[in-house]
Design a protein that fits this description.
Order of helices and strands: HHHHHHHHHHHHHHHHHHH
Number of domains: 2
Structural class: mainly alpha
Distance between the termini: 21 Å
Bound molecules: protoporphyrin IX containing FE
Strand content: under 5%
Shape: globular
Number of helices: 19
Protein backbone atom coordinates (compact mmCIF):
# COMPACT_ATOMS: atom_id res chain seq x y z
CA UNK A 1 0.00 0.00 0.00
CA UNK A 2 1.27 3.43 -0.80
CA UNK A 3 2.27 5.40 2.26
CA UNK A 4 0.64 8.77 1.85
CA UNK A 5 2.07 11.76 3.58
CA UNK A 6 -0.27 13.59 5.89
CA UNK A 7 -0.30 16.59 3.58
CA UNK A 8 -1.22 14.49 0.57
CA UNK A 9 -3.90 12.70 2.51
CA UNK A 10 -5.26 16.01 3.64
CA UNK A 11 -5.34 17.38 0.09
CA UNK A 12 -7.21 14.31 -1.02
CA UNK A 13 -9.54 14.62 1.94
CA UNK A 14 -10.36 18.19 0.98
CA UNK A 15 -11.05 17.09 -2.59
CA UNK A 16 -13.42 14.40 -1.37
CA UNK A 17 -15.12 16.77 0.99
CA UNK A 18 -13.94 14.69 3.92
CA UNK A 19 -11.63 17.23 5.43
CA UNK A 20 -13.34 20.47 4.49
CA UNK A 21 -15.82 21.40 7.20
CA UNK A 22 -13.62 21.48 10.25
CA UNK A 23 -15.33 19.42 12.88
CA UNK A 24 -14.10 19.53 16.45
CA UNK A 25 -11.56 16.74 16.74
CA UNK A 26 -12.32 14.48 19.68
CA UNK A 27 -9.49 13.54 21.97
CA UNK A 28 -9.16 10.01 20.63
CA UNK A 29 -8.52 11.18 17.08
CA UNK A 30 -5.31 13.02 17.84
CA UNK A 31 -4.04 10.09 19.87
CA UNK A 32 -4.15 7.75 16.86
CA UNK A 33 -1.11 6.69 14.89
CA UNK A 34 0.20 8.74 11.99
CA UNK A 35 -1.58 8.85 8.66
CA UNK A 36 -0.77 5.85 6.53
CA UNK A 37 -1.07 3.32 9.28
CA UNK A 38 -4.83 3.55 9.64
CA UNK A 39 -6.50 0.18 9.58
CA UNK A 40 -3.82 -1.30 11.76
CA UNK A 41 -4.72 0.50 14.93
CA UNK A 42 -6.17 3.86 14.09
CA UNK A 43 -9.63 3.05 15.33
CA UNK A 44 -8.52 1.67 18.65
CA UNK A 45 -9.68 4.61 20.64
CA UNK A 46 -12.63 5.61 18.51
CA UNK A 47 -16.07 5.84 20.01
CA UNK A 48 -17.26 6.24 23.54
CA UNK A 49 -16.26 3.43 25.83
CA UNK A 50 -14.19 1.72 23.15
CA UNK A 51 -10.98 2.05 25.10
CA UNK A 52 -12.12 -0.64 27.50
CA UNK A 53 -12.13 -3.46 24.94
CA UNK A 54 -10.22 -4.37 21.80
CA UNK A 55 -10.24 -1.85 18.94
CA UNK A 56 -12.51 -2.60 15.99
CA UNK A 57 -9.56 -3.73 13.87
CA UNK A 58 -9.41 -6.71 16.24
CA UNK A 59 -13.13 -7.38 16.06
CA UNK A 60 -14.67 -9.55 13.39
CA UNK A 61 -17.96 -11.32 14.14
CA UNK A 62 -18.07 -13.73 17.06
CA UNK A 63 -21.67 -14.67 16.41
CA UNK A 64 -21.56 -15.27 12.65
CA UNK A 65 -17.96 -16.29 11.86
CA UNK A 66 -17.66 -19.67 13.62
CA UNK A 67 -21.17 -20.55 12.43
CA UNK A 68 -20.38 -19.82 8.79
CA UNK A 69 -17.11 -21.72 8.98
CA UNK A 70 -19.15 -24.74 10.10
CA UNK A 71 -21.78 -24.20 7.39
CA UNK A 72 -19.15 -24.03 4.66
CA UNK A 73 -17.13 -26.99 5.95
CA UNK A 74 -20.32 -29.01 6.40
CA UNK A 75 -21.44 -28.32 2.81
CA UNK A 76 -24.66 -26.59 3.95
CA UNK A 77 -24.31 -23.38 1.93
CA UNK A 78 -26.19 -24.44 -1.26
CA UNK A 79 -29.17 -25.53 0.87
CA UNK A 80 -29.12 -22.25 2.80
CA UNK A 81 -28.99 -20.25 -0.43
CA UNK A 82 -32.00 -22.18 -1.74
CA UNK A 83 -33.95 -21.95 1.50
CA UNK A 84 -33.51 -18.23 2.01
CA UNK A 85 -34.41 -17.19 -1.53
CA UNK A 86 -38.00 -16.63 -0.40
CA UNK A 87 -36.93 -14.91 2.83
CA UNK A 88 -37.28 -11.26 1.87
CA UNK A 89 -39.45 -9.13 4.16
CA UNK A 90 -38.45 -8.19 7.69
CA UNK A 91 -41.54 -9.90 9.05
CA UNK A 92 -41.16 -13.09 6.98
CA UNK A 93 -40.72 -16.09 9.25
CA UNK A 94 -37.23 -17.61 9.27
CA UNK A 95 -37.44 -20.06 6.34
CA UNK A 96 -37.66 -23.82 6.79
CA UNK A 97 -34.97 -26.13 5.46
CA UNK A 98 -32.09 -24.41 7.26
CA UNK A 99 -29.65 -26.19 9.57
CA UNK A 100 -31.00 -25.68 13.09
CA UNK A 101 -28.03 -23.70 14.45
CA UNK A 102 -28.17 -21.40 11.42
CA UNK A 103 -31.92 -20.86 11.91
CA UNK A 104 -31.32 -20.18 15.63
CA UNK A 105 -28.68 -17.58 14.75
CA UNK A 106 -31.01 -15.79 12.33
CA UNK A 107 -33.83 -15.81 14.87
CA UNK A 108 -31.53 -14.10 17.33
CA UNK A 109 -30.10 -11.38 15.08
CA UNK A 110 -32.99 -10.61 12.74
CA UNK A 111 -34.31 -7.63 14.70
CA UNK A 112 -33.61 -3.97 15.16
CA UNK A 113 -31.39 -2.94 18.09
CA UNK A 114 -33.24 -1.57 21.13
CA UNK A 115 -31.84 1.92 20.47
CA UNK A 116 -33.30 2.11 16.94
CA UNK A 117 -35.63 5.09 16.70
CA UNK A 118 -38.54 4.51 14.30
CA UNK A 119 -39.30 8.23 14.07
CA UNK A 120 -35.78 8.97 12.86
CA UNK A 121 -35.80 5.97 10.56
CA UNK A 122 -39.08 7.14 9.01
CA UNK A 123 -37.62 10.59 8.51
CA UNK A 124 -34.50 9.07 6.93
CA UNK A 125 -36.70 7.11 4.54
CA UNK A 126 -38.52 10.25 3.53
CA UNK A 127 -35.21 12.04 3.11
CA UNK A 128 -33.93 9.23 0.89
CA UNK A 129 -37.01 9.58 -1.27
CA UNK A 130 -36.70 13.35 -1.53
CA UNK A 131 -32.99 13.20 -2.30
CA UNK A 132 -32.82 10.04 -4.35
CA UNK A 133 -31.18 11.59 -7.43
CA UNK A 134 -28.19 12.92 -5.52
CA UNK A 135 -27.93 9.89 -3.29
CA UNK A 136 -28.00 7.65 -6.28
CA UNK A 137 -25.25 9.50 -8.14
CA UNK A 138 -23.09 9.85 -5.04
CA UNK A 139 -23.40 6.26 -3.85
CA UNK A 140 -23.14 4.85 -7.35
CA UNK A 141 -20.32 6.83 -8.88
CA UNK A 142 -18.74 8.35 -5.76
CA UNK A 143 -18.79 5.61 -3.13
CA UNK A 144 -18.85 2.79 -5.68
CA UNK A 145 -15.67 3.92 -7.40
CA UNK A 146 -14.11 5.03 -4.11
CA UNK A 147 -14.36 1.41 -2.95
CA UNK A 148 -11.83 0.54 -5.67
CA UNK A 149 -9.21 2.82 -4.08
CA UNK A 150 -9.69 1.32 -0.62
CA UNK A 151 -7.06 -1.40 -1.10
CA UNK A 152 -8.30 -3.89 1.51
CA UNK A 153 -11.81 -3.73 0.15
CA UNK A 154 -10.68 -3.87 -3.49
CA UNK A 155 -8.43 -6.87 -2.88
CA UNK A 156 -11.04 -8.84 -0.99
CA UNK A 157 -13.79 -8.06 -3.47
CA UNK A 158 -11.54 -8.89 -6.41
CA UNK A 159 -10.34 -12.22 -5.05
CA UNK A 160 -13.68 -13.40 -3.67
CA UNK A 161 -16.02 -15.38 -5.91
CA UNK A 162 -18.13 -12.35 -6.76
CA UNK A 163 -15.16 -10.38 -8.10
CA UNK A 164 -15.31 -12.34 -11.33
CA UNK A 165 -18.70 -10.87 -12.23
CA UNK A 166 -18.71 -7.23 -11.31
CA UNK A 167 -22.04 -6.42 -12.86
CA UNK A 168 -23.72 -9.02 -10.70
CA UNK A 169 -21.83 -7.83 -7.64
CA UNK A 170 -22.64 -4.19 -8.29
CA UNK A 171 -26.29 -5.15 -8.66
CA UNK A 172 -26.20 -6.99 -5.31
CA UNK A 173 -24.59 -4.05 -3.61
CA UNK A 174 -27.29 -1.88 -5.08
CA UNK A 175 -29.88 -4.22 -3.59
CA UNK A 176 -28.42 -3.23 -0.22
CA UNK A 177 -28.63 0.48 -1.01
CA UNK A 178 -32.07 0.13 -2.52
CA UNK A 179 -33.50 -1.83 0.41
CA UNK A 180 -31.86 0.62 2.82
CA UNK A 181 -33.41 3.59 1.06
CA UNK A 182 -36.93 2.19 0.67
CA UNK A 183 -39.74 4.07 2.40
CA UNK A 184 -40.55 1.31 4.89
CA UNK A 185 -37.07 -0.23 4.96
CA UNK A 186 -36.95 -0.82 8.69
CA UNK A 187 -40.65 -1.53 9.16
CA UNK A 188 -41.93 -5.10 9.44
CA UNK A 189 -43.02 -4.99 5.79
CA UNK A 190 -39.68 -3.57 4.63
CA UNK A 191 -36.71 -5.64 3.54
CA UNK A 192 -33.61 -4.04 4.92
CA UNK A 193 -33.18 -6.02 8.13
CA UNK A 194 -33.17 -9.24 6.09
CA UNK A 195 -30.81 -7.83 3.44
CA UNK A 196 -28.40 -6.62 6.12
CA UNK A 197 -28.44 -10.00 7.84
CA UNK A 198 -27.80 -11.81 4.57
CA UNK A 199 -24.88 -9.46 3.96
CA UNK A 200 -23.51 -10.06 7.45
CA UNK A 201 -23.55 -13.79 6.77
CA UNK A 202 -21.84 -13.31 3.37
CA UNK A 203 -19.09 -11.30 5.08
CA UNK A 204 -18.67 -14.09 7.66
CA UNK A 205 -18.33 -16.62 4.83
CA UNK A 206 -15.73 -14.41 3.13
CA UNK A 207 -13.70 -14.30 6.37
CA UNK A 208 -13.50 -18.08 6.25
CA UNK A 209 -12.91 -18.41 2.51
CA UNK A 210 -10.49 -15.64 1.54
CA UNK A 211 -7.67 -16.76 3.85
CA UNK A 212 -7.70 -19.97 1.76
CA UNK A 213 -7.07 -18.04 -1.47
CA UNK A 214 -3.38 -18.07 -2.42
CA UNK A 215 -4.03 -15.04 -4.65
CA UNK A 216 -5.55 -12.98 -1.83
CA UNK A 217 -2.89 -14.10 0.65
CA UNK A 218 -0.17 -12.96 -1.75
CA UNK A 219 -1.49 -9.38 -1.81
CA UNK A 220 -3.26 -8.93 1.54
CA UNK A 221 -1.77 -7.03 4.49
CA UNK A 222 -3.98 -8.84 7.00
CA UNK A 223 -4.82 -12.43 7.88
CA UNK A 224 -8.61 -12.14 8.22
CA UNK A 225 -10.55 -9.66 6.07
CA UNK A 226 -13.54 -7.42 6.89
CA UNK A 227 -12.92 -6.38 10.49
CA UNK A 228 -15.34 -4.02 12.22
CA UNK A 229 -12.79 -1.28 11.49
CA UNK A 230 -12.93 -2.11 7.76
CA UNK A 231 -16.73 -1.93 7.84
CA UNK A 232 -16.49 1.51 9.44
CA UNK A 233 -14.09 2.61 6.71
CA UNK A 234 -16.65 1.51 4.12
CA UNK A 235 -19.41 3.29 6.04
CA UNK A 236 -17.38 6.50 5.74
CA UNK A 237 -16.98 5.96 2.00
CA UNK A 238 -20.77 5.71 1.80
CA UNK A 239 -22.63 7.66 4.50
CA UNK A 240 -20.02 10.16 5.65
CA UNK A 241 -18.89 10.91 2.10
CA UNK A 242 -22.46 11.46 0.86
CA UNK A 243 -23.27 13.62 3.90
CA UNK A 244 -20.31 15.87 3.15
CA UNK A 245 -21.08 16.11 -0.55
CA UNK A 246 -24.68 17.13 0.10
CA UNK A 247 -23.40 19.94 2.30
CA UNK A 248 -20.74 20.90 -0.22
CA UNK A 249 -23.30 20.99 -3.05
CA UNK A 250 -25.53 23.16 -0.86
CA UNK A 251 -28.49 20.87 -1.20
CA UNK A 252 -31.14 21.91 1.35
CA UNK A 253 -30.37 19.49 4.20
CA UNK A 254 -31.88 20.52 7.54
CA UNK A 255 -30.43 19.32 10.85
CA UNK A 256 -33.27 16.84 11.42
CA UNK A 257 -32.52 15.21 8.04
CA UNK A 258 -28.83 15.04 8.89
CA UNK A 259 -29.58 13.38 12.19
CA UNK A 260 -32.00 10.93 10.63
CA UNK A 261 -29.55 10.01 7.86
CA UNK A 262 -26.85 9.32 10.44
CA UNK A 263 -29.21 7.25 12.54
CA UNK A 264 -30.16 5.12 9.55
CA UNK A 265 -26.48 4.40 8.92
CA UNK A 266 -25.81 3.68 12.59
CA UNK A 267 -28.53 1.02 12.56
CA UNK A 268 -27.31 -0.38 9.22
CA UNK A 269 -23.70 -0.66 10.39
CA UNK A 270 -24.84 -2.29 13.61
CA UNK A 271 -26.92 -4.85 11.70
CA UNK A 272 -23.71 -5.71 9.82
CA UNK A 273 -22.23 -6.75 13.16
CA UNK A 274 -20.29 -3.66 14.31
CA UNK A 275 -20.64 -3.20 18.10
CA UNK A 276 -22.54 -0.09 19.16
CA UNK A 277 -19.63 1.43 21.09
CA UNK A 278 -17.51 1.71 17.95
CA UNK A 279 -20.14 3.46 15.82
CA UNK A 280 -19.74 7.27 15.62
CA UNK A 281 -22.44 9.09 17.59
CA UNK A 282 -22.42 12.38 15.67
CA UNK A 283 -21.48 13.53 12.16
CA UNK A 284 -18.61 15.48 13.70
CA UNK A 285 -17.30 12.25 15.20
CA UNK A 286 -17.89 10.38 11.94
CA UNK A 287 -16.02 13.01 9.99
CA UNK A 288 -13.10 12.98 12.38
CA UNK A 289 -12.95 9.18 12.22
CA UNK A 290 -13.20 9.28 8.45
CA UNK A 291 -10.28 11.69 8.19
CA UNK A 292 -8.29 9.36 10.36
CA UNK A 293 -9.14 5.96 8.89
CA UNK A 294 -10.43 6.45 5.35
CA UNK A 295 -8.56 9.34 3.76
CA UNK A 296 -5.04 8.05 4.55
CA UNK A 297 -5.69 4.54 3.22
CA UNK A 298 -6.99 5.62 -0.18
CA UNK A 299 -4.53 4.46 -2.81
CA UNK A 300 -4.48 2.50 -6.05
CA UNK A 301 -3.96 -1.24 -6.31
CA UNK A 302 -3.85 -3.60 -9.27
CA UNK A 303 -7.12 -5.14 -8.14
CA UNK A 304 -8.81 -1.79 -7.59
CA UNK A 305 -7.83 -0.49 -11.01
CA UNK A 306 -9.30 -3.61 -12.64
CA UNK A 307 -12.49 -3.37 -10.60
CA UNK A 308 -12.96 0.28 -11.51
CA UNK A 309 -12.47 -0.54 -15.16
CA UNK A 310 -15.01 -3.36 -14.85
CA UNK A 311 -17.53 -1.12 -13.14
CA UNK A 312 -17.17 1.79 -15.53
CA UNK A 313 -16.96 -0.56 -18.50
CA UNK A 314 -20.38 -1.95 -17.61
CA UNK A 315 -21.87 1.21 -18.91
CA UNK A 316 -20.60 0.45 -22.38
CA UNK A 317 -23.35 -2.15 -22.53
CA UNK A 318 -26.17 0.34 -22.28
CA UNK A 319 -26.79 3.76 -23.70
CA UNK A 320 -26.42 6.20 -20.82
CA UNK A 321 -26.88 9.15 -23.11
CA UNK A 322 -23.32 10.25 -22.34
CA UNK A 323 -19.88 9.27 -23.55
CA UNK A 324 -17.31 7.30 -21.57
CA UNK A 325 -15.30 10.51 -21.41
CA UNK A 326 -18.20 12.21 -19.68
CA UNK A 327 -18.51 9.33 -17.23
CA UNK A 328 -14.78 9.48 -16.47
CA UNK A 329 -15.02 13.20 -15.84
CA UNK A 330 -18.07 12.83 -13.63
CA UNK A 331 -16.12 10.37 -11.49
CA UNK A 332 -13.20 12.82 -11.36
CA UNK A 333 -15.65 15.57 -10.38
CA UNK A 334 -17.12 13.65 -7.45
CA UNK A 335 -13.89 11.98 -6.30
CA UNK A 336 -10.95 14.21 -7.35
CA UNK A 337 -8.43 14.15 -10.16
CA UNK A 338 -6.01 12.30 -7.97
CA UNK A 339 -8.35 9.31 -7.77
CA UNK A 340 -9.07 9.66 -11.50
CA UNK A 341 -5.33 9.56 -12.23
CA UNK A 342 -4.78 6.55 -9.98
CA UNK A 343 -7.47 4.69 -11.89
CA UNK A 344 -6.14 5.82 -15.25
CA UNK A 345 -9.43 7.48 -16.25
CA UNK A 346 -8.76 9.01 -19.65
CA UNK A 347 -9.25 12.77 -19.72
CA UNK A 348 -11.95 14.45 -21.76
CA UNK A 349 -11.48 18.15 -21.14
CA UNK A 350 -14.63 19.24 -22.98
CA UNK A 351 -16.70 16.87 -20.85
CA UNK A 352 -14.84 18.06 -17.73
CA UNK A 353 -15.83 21.66 -18.41
CA UNK A 354 -19.41 20.60 -19.07
CA UNK A 355 -19.70 18.61 -15.83
CA UNK A 356 -18.20 21.38 -13.73
CA UNK A 357 -20.63 24.02 -15.00
CA UNK A 358 -23.74 22.04 -15.90
CA UNK A 359 -24.02 19.84 -12.79
CA UNK A 360 -24.23 22.79 -10.35
CA UNK A 361 -26.78 24.42 -12.69
CA UNK A 362 -28.76 21.17 -12.76
CA UNK A 363 -28.82 21.16 -8.94
CA UNK A 364 -29.87 24.80 -8.69
CA UNK A 365 -32.72 24.25 -11.10
CA UNK A 366 -33.89 21.02 -9.48
CA UNK A 367 -33.88 22.68 -6.07
CA UNK A 368 -35.91 25.61 -7.32
CA UNK A 369 -32.98 27.91 -6.55
CA UNK A 370 -32.71 29.06 -10.14
CA UNK A 371 -35.54 29.54 -12.64
CA UNK A 372 -33.23 28.80 -15.56
CA UNK A 373 -33.43 25.24 -16.78
CA UNK A 374 -29.98 24.28 -18.06
CA UNK A 375 -29.97 23.04 -21.64
CA UNK A 376 -28.27 19.91 -20.34
CA UNK A 377 -31.13 19.10 -17.94
CA UNK A 378 -32.47 16.17 -19.93
CA UNK A 379 -29.02 14.78 -20.53
CA UNK A 380 -28.37 14.55 -16.79
CA UNK A 381 -31.85 13.22 -16.22
CA UNK A 382 -31.38 10.47 -18.78
CA UNK A 383 -27.91 9.70 -17.48
CA UNK A 384 -29.22 9.19 -13.95
CA UNK A 385 -32.16 7.07 -15.04
CA UNK A 386 -30.05 4.88 -17.31
CA UNK A 387 -27.49 4.31 -14.56
CA UNK A 388 -30.26 3.35 -12.14
CA UNK A 389 -31.68 0.88 -14.65
CA UNK A 390 -28.29 -0.59 -15.35
CA UNK A 391 -27.54 -1.42 -11.75
CA UNK A 392 -30.98 -2.18 -10.43
CA UNK A 393 -32.10 -4.30 -13.37
CA UNK A 394 -28.72 -5.44 -14.58
CA UNK A 395 -29.52 -3.62 -17.79
CA UNK A 396 -32.25 -5.98 -18.88
CA UNK A 397 -34.61 -8.02 -16.73
CA UNK A 398 -36.54 -6.40 -13.92
CA UNK A 399 -35.77 -8.98 -11.26
CA UNK A 400 -33.83 -8.09 -8.12
CA UNK A 401 -30.55 -9.87 -7.57
CA UNK A 402 -30.63 -12.27 -4.65
CA UNK A 403 -27.73 -12.16 -2.21
CA UNK A 404 -26.10 -15.57 -2.10
CA UNK A 405 -23.38 -16.97 0.13
CA UNK A 406 -20.25 -17.89 -1.82
CA UNK A 407 -18.74 -21.37 -1.43
CA UNK A 408 -15.32 -20.58 -2.86
CA UNK A 409 -13.02 -17.83 -4.06
CA UNK A 410 -12.21 -16.39 -7.45
CA UNK A 411 -10.20 -19.13 -9.14
CA UNK A 412 -7.52 -16.89 -10.64
C1 LIG B 1 -20.45 -8.83 0.00
C2 LIG B 1 -22.31 -4.58 1.45
C3 LIG B 1 -18.25 -3.75 3.94
C4 LIG B 1 -16.09 -7.12 1.22
C5 LIG B 1 -21.33 -7.81 0.26
C6 LIG B 1 -22.72 -7.77 -0.12
C7 LIG B 1 -23.23 -6.57 0.22
C8 LIG B 1 -22.18 -5.84 0.89
C9 LIG B 1 -24.65 -6.08 0.00
C10 LIG B 1 -23.49 -8.93 -0.74
C11 LIG B 1 -23.53 -8.83 -2.19
C12 LIG B 1 -22.43 -9.56 -2.84
O1 LIG B 1 -22.31 -10.76 -2.63
O2 LIG B 1 -21.71 -8.93 -3.58
C13 LIG B 1 -21.40 -4.02 2.32
C14 LIG B 1 -21.63 -2.84 3.13
C15 LIG B 1 -20.49 -2.62 3.85
C16 LIG B 1 -19.54 -3.64 3.46
C17 LIG B 1 -22.91 -2.03 3.13
C18 LIG B 1 -20.17 -1.55 4.87
C19 LIG B 1 -20.93 -0.54 5.24
C20 LIG B 1 -17.30 -4.54 3.36
C21 LIG B 1 -15.88 -4.46 3.63
C22 LIG B 1 -15.27 -5.40 2.85
C23 LIG B 1 -16.30 -6.08 2.09
C24 LIG B 1 -15.25 -3.51 4.62
C25 LIG B 1 -13.81 -5.76 2.74
C26 LIG B 1 -12.84 -5.07 3.26
C27 LIG B 1 -17.09 -7.90 0.69
C28 LIG B 1 -16.86 -9.13 -0.05
C29 LIG B 1 -18.12 -9.65 -0.38
C30 LIG B 1 -19.09 -8.71 0.14
C31 LIG B 1 -15.51 -9.74 -0.37
C32 LIG B 1 -18.44 -10.97 -1.09
C33 LIG B 1 -18.50 -10.89 -2.55
C34 LIG B 1 -18.68 -12.29 -3.13
O3 LIG B 1 -19.81 -12.79 -3.17
O4 LIG B 1 -17.69 -12.85 -3.52
N1 LIG B 1 -21.05 -6.62 0.90
N2 LIG B 1 -20.13 -4.47 2.55
N3 LIG B 1 -17.51 -5.54 2.42
N4 LIG B 1 -18.43 -7.68 0.79
FE1 LIG B 1 -19.29 -6.13 1.72
Amino acid sequence: MENLSRRRALTLGVALGLAGAAAPVPAWASAGPAAGTAGTGALTEAGAGAAAGPGPEWIWDDAADPLMARMIEGGHVPAINRAWESWVNNNDPIPGGLPSDFAAYLTQVNRLPSWADQTKLARAADFNRRRDTYLFMLYGLGSGIMSTVIPREAKSVYWSAGGADMQDRAAKTFTFGYDLSELGAFKPTGQFVVTANKTRVVHAAVRHLLPQSPHWKAVADESIPISAADILVTFHSLGTYVHQKLLEWRIPYPAADQEAFLHMWQVAVHLLGVPYEHIPKTWAEALAQSRQVLTPVLSPSTEGIRLAEDLLGLTAQVDLGVTRGFLNEFVRYVLSDQVGDWLGLRRDYAAAALVRTAWPAFILFREGLSPVMPSTFYMFDQFIRALAMLFLNKGSSGTTTPITIPTGNRPG
